[in-house]
From TrEMBL:
It comes from the Eukaryota. This is Uncharacterized protein. Keywords: Membrane, Transmembrane, Transmembrane helix. The chain crosses the membrane at residues 6-27, 34-57, 69-89.
Length: 105
């Protein structure tokens, strides 16, 4: 990001996303489950130190791609949790009820 001069754009995007995510949680606080609230806050608080480290701290010379790998692992874990959550919601909410067909003579 530093090489491409994208740091300012990154911070604006991250702050905008955080504001929108926290606003959504605040508006729907009584409808959001505890897991969703915890996961949303965890997503923002776990990603922020990694992103700050990736921008401002040089990785060790033995592991030049350390920050990129850690951010990718976090993103993969978040994706898998969201995937499992949506599958649970999909199969939990879909119940097939057949309406009896009324015969008219």
């Amino acid at each position: 990001m530093i090489k491409d001069d994208l740091v300012l754009i990154f911070w604006l995007t991250f702050i905008g996303f955080s504001i929108l995510a926290l606003q959504r949680i605040y508006v729907h606080l009584n409808q959001v489950s505890l897991f969703q609230l915890f996961f949303s806050i965890l997503c923002i608080t776990a990603t922020l130190p990694l992103l700050i480290a990736a921008i401002y701290i040089q990785p060790p010379s033995r592991y030049p791609d350390l920050w990129v790998v850690l951010i990718s692992v976090c993103s993969c874990i978040y994706f898998l949790i969201i995937l499992v959550q949506f599958h649970i919601y999909q199969f939990k909410e879909t119940t097939f009820k057949q309406n009896p067909i009324k015969k008219t003579n």
